[in-house]
Structure to design on (498 residues):
């Protein structure tokens, strides 16, 4: 197997803890020498299940909104509000927890929770039960992105970090699958939009959709449990003083990839010998000092001026884009239906047919994003800025539509570039955060987008969704976020994430 050359480190020992930096460099070198192999490709698939879940479960709230309102007769944004509260809790608990109790439990439990409670949600007898169960689903789903991106970067060679951007193809495939399922189920097993009453027996489509997606999520969680053995992060193990276990993990990866590694325990312990305090006592790298939540990891993300600027900008980016996209995406099927009614062709069939078309458009965006982030002079920041600008521009353009087909065309362009934007955003953040605080950093940015995801439905409760105002607000916010991306102090292209 050809081995790629060792890339320059993203940080130096003045940016992060010097002991951590030295040990992370040793581990990076060892993983780079092992190269991209069977273990990493299997991990790409299993971690991709997290992107899949993060795509389908938030979207399902929008897909089932029309028939659920017909059956339970409530103000639509309340359902999205409940789901986003769950996503917020999940992002905080699992993201922070992955830096405390390790990656494995978080990685394996998040999908299981989503599958069990998602399946149960299909049998909901009333709105309160449905909203509560979908909130618990959100607790599971909310942890997928913070944890899974950290897991993938912990094991992938630096030369293949761009695959974290390509990972968004799972997000696009999730949207496509759920739209393909929603199209026949909701269009054929829902009450007529003109019906004055809507009984459960006449409105089983959304329940069938929840049963199907819940069962599929359970299958994916079982694959993670039984078909793929996720090893604990070697960086996490080093941080809790288990250097030998970290070395063992590296050797297990090499064996799984049918190769070898010369990493030894002495390679790590020698770092301690070089970094001692005034009393000659070895300084211990700080990854996870305790098994309880503390502010240690949060403080580390603001320890230097450069790190503080980087973390603050990333939190701001995620918050702005989270507000804009949730405000628009959560009610996209409703907007399509209401606009379609204005164009005299609004019905469930056309609404969900268009949703399928939009989902297909998003798939190639993931591969284009993976190519663009490796381009010289453009990289991650440039790709994020360009895609955000075009996403906002096409949102503005959609307000000029005078027919359903025109609206669909503008939305196709919006979805294509927004998938590129999200692919880069989901990758650049964990790449920039040091592994010792990556779960916490991912939790902070995910919390920002989830907080505004909670605010978006509240705004929708008081906004007139039949006007173009929410679209203008969303477009302006996304363009502004793209501009802010230019000021990030770190560019991960061509650098080894630490």
């Amino acid at each position: 197997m050809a081995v790629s050359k060792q890339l320059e480190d993203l940080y130096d020992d003045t940016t992060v803890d010097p002991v951590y930096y030295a040990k992370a460099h040793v581990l990076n070198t060892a993983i780079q020498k092992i190269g991209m192999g069977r273990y990493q490709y299997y991990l790409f698939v299993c971690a991709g299940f997290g992107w899949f879940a993060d795509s389908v479960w938030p979207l399902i709230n929008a897909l089932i909104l029309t028939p659920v309102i017909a059956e339970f007769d409530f103000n639509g944004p309340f359902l999205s509000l409940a789901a986003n509260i769950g996503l917020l809790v999940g992002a905080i608990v699992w993201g922070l927890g992955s830096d405390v109790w390790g990656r494995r439990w978080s990685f394996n439990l998040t999908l299981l929770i989503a599958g069990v409670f998602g399946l149960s949600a299909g049998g909901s007898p009333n709105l309160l039960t449905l909203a509560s169960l979908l909130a618990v689903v959100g607790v599971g789903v909310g942890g997928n992105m913070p944890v899974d991106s950290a897991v993938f970067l912990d094991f992938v060679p630096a030369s293949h970090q761009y695959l974290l951007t390509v990972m968004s193809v799972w997000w696009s495939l999730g949207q496509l699958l759920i739209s393909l399922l929603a199209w026949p189920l909701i269009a054929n097993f829902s009450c007529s939009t003109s019906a004055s009453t809507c009984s459960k027996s006449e409105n089983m489509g959304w329940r069938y959709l929840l049963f199907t997606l819940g069962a599929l999520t359970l299958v994916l969680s079982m694959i993670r449990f039984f078909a793929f053995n996720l090893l604990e992060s070697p960086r996490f193990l080093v941080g809790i003083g288990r250097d030998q276990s970290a070395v063992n993990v590296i050797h297990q990866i090499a064996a799984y990839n049918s190769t070898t590694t010369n990493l030894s325990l002495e390679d790590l312990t020698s770092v301690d010998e070089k970094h001692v305090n005034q009393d000659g006592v070895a300084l211990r790298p700080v990854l996870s000092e305790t098994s309880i939540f503390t502010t240690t990891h949060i403080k580390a993300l603001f320890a230097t001026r450069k790190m503080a600027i980087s973390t603050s900008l990333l939190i701001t980016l995620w918050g702005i884009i989270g507000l804009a996209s949730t405000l628009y995406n959560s009610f996209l099927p409703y907007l399509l239906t209401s606009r379609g009614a204005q164009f005299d062709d609004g019905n469930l069939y056309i609404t969900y047919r268009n949703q399928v078309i939009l989902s297909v458009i998003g798939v190639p965006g993931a591969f284009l994003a993976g190519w663009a982030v490796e381009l010289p002079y453009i990289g991650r920041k440039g790709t994020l800025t360009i895609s955000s600008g075009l996403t906002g521009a096409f949102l503005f353009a959609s307000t000029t539509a005078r027919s359903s087909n025109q609206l669909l065309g503008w939305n196709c362009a919006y979805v294509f570039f927004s998938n590129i934007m999200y692919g880069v955003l989901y990758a650049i953040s964990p790449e920039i955060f040091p592994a010792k605080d990556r779960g916490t950093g991912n939790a902070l940015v995910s919390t920002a987008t989830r907080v505004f995801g909670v605010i978006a439905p509240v705004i929708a409760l008081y906004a007139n969704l039949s006007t173009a105002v929410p679209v203008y607000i969303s477009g302006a916010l996304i363009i502004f976020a793209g501009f802010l991306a230019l000021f990030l102090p770190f560019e991960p292209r061509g650098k080894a994430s630490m």
User: Anything to note?
Assistant: The first helix runs from residue 18 to 34. Residues 340 and 381 are 37 Å apart (CA to CA). The first strand starts at residue 8 and ends at 9. DSSP finds 21 helices and two strands in the chain.
